[in-house]
């Protein structure tokens, strides 16, 4: 007998793989991992070079290294390389760390966090997350020179550093079996999709207004997001 839930899950996974936005974001994630590996390899190269220079200097100015000295130098190089490769990388972002991230780094950190949330979301929401990821990609260079104390910067931080993670975290706290059921007049799946649609639209508006230099309008335009799942959490 065919497992219908498994078929649906595989169909959704295929849709996600075929999404151009998903492929682009996955490519960006691979690039970030590759750059991190290159940084480690570069650090290993310079560390090993420093050990070789130190050993050579000692052998020339103090005393010949001999076989034991050479062995110790090689062991030091191997241990240094292994330590650098095994050293923990940058911790995965969390809603708490997102709220405290530097404004210039916030879009990338939020994109990394969204990448980890994506598999737990329904297919329509995952596609919206892909769109939000592209919005964040466009927004990132615009925030490099924006003063974090500007009201516009505060609005951007609130949206992507607080409200967006709160929306997705609130959805994930709802038991999976209840996410398609109406509770207190609200269906969690639909509420998530509507919230993500508003977030994507807001990010597009913010990017356009940053590009036009209209910071005052960006900071003062009202936004009404229903991002709380209090009704679901209380039951």
Kindly summarize this structure in a few lines.
This protein is mostly helical and 235 residues long. The protein contains ten helices and no strands. Helix 6 packs parallel to helix 8.
Question: How are the elements arranged and paired?
Answer:
Layout: H1 4-18, H2 20-61, H3 66-86, H4 95-100, H5 106-117, H6 123-143, H7 151-173, H8 188-212, H9 215-220, H10 230-233
Helix pairs in contact: 2-3, 5-6, 5-7, 6-8, 7-8
Rounded mean pLDDT score: 78
- In the predicted model, the low-confidence regions spanning at least 5 consecutive residues are 1-5, 226-235
Overall tally of structural domains: 2
Can you summarize the main beta sheet?
A: none
In terms of DSSP E residues, the strand content is under 5%
Task: State the shape.
Answer: elongated
What is the helix tally? 10
- Judged by helices, strands and strand pairing, the structural class is mainly alpha
Cα end-to-end separation: 35 Å
Q: Report the helical percentage.
A: over 70%
Order of helices and strands: HHHHHHHHHH
The rounded Rg comes to: 24 Å
The counted number of beta strands is 0
Q: What does this 3D model show about the protein?
A:
This protein is mostly helical and 235 residues long. It has two domains: 1-89; 92-233, no CATH class. 74% of the residues lie in helices and 0% in strands. It contains ten helices and no strands. It has helices at 4-18, 20-61, 66-86, 95-100, 106-117, 123-143, 151-173, 188-212, 215-220, 230-233. Helix 6 (123-143) runs parallel beside helix 8 (188-212). The model is unreliable at 1-5 and 226-235 (pLDDT under 50). The chain crosses the membrane at residues 43-63, 69-87. Keywords: Membrane, Transmembrane, Transmembrane helix.
């Amino acid at each position: 007998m065919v497992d219908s839930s498994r078929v649906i899950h595989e169909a959704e996974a295929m849709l996600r793989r075929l999404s151009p936005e998903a492929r682009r974001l996955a490519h960006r994630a691979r690039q970030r991992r590759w750059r991190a590996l290159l940084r480690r390899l570069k650090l290993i190269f310079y560390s090993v070079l420093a050990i070789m220079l130190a050993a050579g200097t000692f052998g020339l100015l103090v005393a010949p290294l001999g076989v034991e000295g050479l062995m110790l130098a090689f062991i030091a190089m191997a241990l240094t390389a292994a330590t650098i490769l095994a050293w923990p990388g940058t911790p995965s972002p969390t809603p708490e760390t997102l709220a405290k991230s530097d404004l210039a780094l916030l879009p990338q950190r939020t994109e990394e966090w969204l990448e980890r949330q994506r598999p737990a979301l329904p297919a329509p929401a995952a596609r919206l997350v892909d769109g939000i990821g592209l919005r964040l990609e466009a927004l990132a260079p615009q925030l490099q020179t924006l003063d974090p104390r500007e009201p516009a910067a505060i609005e951007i931080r609130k949206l992507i550093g607080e409200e967006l993670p709160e929306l997705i975290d609130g959805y994930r706290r709802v038991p999976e079996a209840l996410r398609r059921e109406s509770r207190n007049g609200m269906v969690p799946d639909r509420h998530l999709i509507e919230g993500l649609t508003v977030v994507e639209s807001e990010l597009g508006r913010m990017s356009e207004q940053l590009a036009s230099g209209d910071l005052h309008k960006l900071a003062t335009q009202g936004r009404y997001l229903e991002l709380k799942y209090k009704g679901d959490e209380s039951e």
